[in-house]
Amino acid sequence: MKTQEAGRVIDATAQTRLERRRFLTRAGMVGLGAAATLTLGSKQASAESAAEKAQEKAQSMDTVKEIFTAALIAEDLATTFYYNGLVGPVIQDVNLAGPGGSATNVQPTGNAGNVNYLQAALTEEIAHADLFRSLLGISGPNADPVQTFYFPAGSFDTLGAFTGLLDTLENAFIGAYLNAIQEFSVKSARQDGDGNKYSAEQLDFFAKVAASIMGIEAEHRVLGRVISNTNPANNLAYEQTDGLNAVYNGPKSAVAALTPFLSPSTGPGYSLATALARQGSVSIAVMGNAPAF
Question: Which residue, among 235, 221, 145, 126, has the nearest Cα to 176 in the 3D structure?
Answer without folding.
Answer: 221
